[in-house]
Amino acid sequence: MAAQIKALGLVFNVVSEGSISQTGGMLIGAGSVLIYTLFGGMWSVAITDFIQMIIIVVGMLYIGGEMTVQTGGVGVVLEHAAAAGQFSNFWPDLNLASILGFVAALCTMMLGSIPQQDVFQRITSSKNVNIAVQAALLGGVLYFIFAFVPLYLAYSATIISPDLVKQYLDTDPQMILPKLILNHAPLIAQVMFFGALLSAIKSCASATLLAPSVTFAENIVRSFFKHLSDKDLLKVMRITVFCFAVVVTFFAINSHLSIFKMVENAYKVTLVAAFVPLAFGVYWSKANSLGGLLAVVGGLTVWISCEALATQAILPPLN
To answer: Could you tell me the sign of the dihedral formed by the alpha carbons of 51, 55, 58, 61, in that order?
Structure first.
């Protein structure tokens, strides 16, 4: 959630050409997401996600076409990437440290994303099992396909504006793509791109804001106050949503990590704490609550200890 807030701040700052500070943009973005999530709940998240996904797909395809015209074609970009060794650079060097680092990154982004609360939020909100399964599979496939579009756009910058890439690559690489669009795309393309970008961020932010808040109210608060009425539980959820939004906004404003690093760190937590109890809970008939709790505590304890004591070890702490 903090990563999404930081991304909103970045977008408002870039689009306003610095008139809105990143901190101000974070406050505006967090406030707008909080309002419709707080009062609309999952229904507002579902409706806005549906509309925002359409904007994302149309916007990304449109801006992809605009950038393709400027680069001379998709083939030109692919040939340039191949000549620069970008495809061969995907695989790690043949040494233990590189291989373990590669495996750690794969585990973090693939396995660490499985126990995310917003994934279960969408699954459990589905009308029936078939819709949950089909929507999850279709969403995953589309997500995988469209993830290549921003990668393609970002690499196109090396052809369209190599000086821009050189300027931001070592200092703030997350600025390359938005600056490319502002400097080299027509106004309608800018509107489509930043509209799609805001839609993507808000779609993710609303879900990640609602999911932990509802989980806390349902699984923790309700276990202590078993006679809470639905109306009272709704109040607890709304208070939790508000408090959680304040906390993550404060964290986002004061964090010096990049957006990617914040997301990666969030996936590390779920990888070491939630993936094992989830997998064994689903597939092992002898799994129980105590075993799950010990797996969570044990995974977190070992990981945090390794992060503190052996950050530069050949075996990454999350492994």
So the answer is: negative
Identity of the residue numbered 317:
P
Cα gap 106→303, rounded to integer Å: 17
Q: How many CA atoms lie within 13 A of 101 on its CB side?
A: 13
Per-residue pLDDT of the chain (319 residues; tens, 9 = 90+): 888 899 888 888 888 888 888 899 999 988 988 888 887 777 777 787 788 778 878 887 888 888 888 888 888 888 888 887 766 677 787 888 888 888 888 888 888 888 887 777 778 778 899 998 898 888 888 888 888 888 888 888 888 888 888 888 777 787 888 888 888 888 888 888 888 778 778 877 877 888 888 888 888 888 888 788 888 888 888 888 899 899 999 999 998 888 888 888 888 888 888 898 898 988 988 888 899 999 999 999 998 998 888 777 788 887 7
Give Dmax (Cα) for the chain: 66
Distance CA(4)–CA(10), nearest Å, equals 10
Which of 209, 148, 150, 215 has the alpha carbon at shortest distance from 178?
A: 150
d(CA 319, CA 311): 12
CA–CA separation, 10 vs 81, rounded Å? 28
CA-only gyration radius of the chain, Å: 21
